[in-house]
């Protein structure tokens, strides 16, 4: 799905306030600290709670492997002033033959309400539509997750219905609002320009 320029862990994306980069082994403690909060984990389908010490290590390894072969792109979100301190994550993964991938994100609770998730996701979406052949992006949010619903609206997603998704970390299925964003409809942070990205 993603071209070779994203397959190396020196790749990063820049926004006004943030760096988005590959997760590293050194990020494990900060990731554990943020997603160990039930208010973060329980709004997702895949983050276990309680979050055990080995869970962050396993996630980082899996994300790096997927990034390295271009099957997805998982990027930790860091403030520009603290590039070694992950405060969240945005990802695109699971591309199918119809040119559709899935957006996922989480943000540490101390950073809620400041627009970081929208800023980071806009950059990743802009990149994806700029350098891949994706035609659309799917995403979902729990109906009671008001902040996630707002993020989808800000990004330009359209609601396509309500349904249930497998949620192995929640012990079964959960009900979600389902969203779709088609190429050309994204409310991107860079407008018509492609995002700045670096491989050095």
Q: What is the CATH architecture descriptor of the domain at 4-135?
A: 3-Layer(aba) Sandwich
Regarding CATH, which class of the domain at 4-135?
A: Alpha Beta
Which regions are unreliable across 5 or more consecutive residues at pLDDT < 50?
189-194
Enumerate the strands of the largest sheet in spatial order, edge to edge or round the barrel: 7-8-6-5-4-3-2-1-9
Organism: Methylocystis borbori
InterPro entries: Acyl_CoA_acyltransferase (IPR016181), GNAT_dom (IPR000182), N-acetyltransferase (IPR051531)
Pfam family, one: Acetyltransf_3
Protein name: GNAT family N-acetyltransferase
Description:
- With 200 residues, the protein is α+β, with helices and mostly antiparallel strands.
- The protein has a domain at 4-135: Gcn5-related N-acetyltransferase (GNAT) (Aminopeptidase).
- Helix content is 28%, strand content 28%.
- The protein has helices at 28-35, 38-41, 53-69, 116-131, 146-155; strands at residues 12-14, 18-21, 73-79, 88-93, 100-107, 136-141, 158-167, 172-182, 197-198.
- It has a 9-stranded mixed sheet with strand order 7-8-6-5-4-3-2-1-9, with helices on both faces.
- Helix 4 crosses helix 5 (146-155).
- The longest helix is centred in the first third of the chain and has 17 residues, at 53-69.
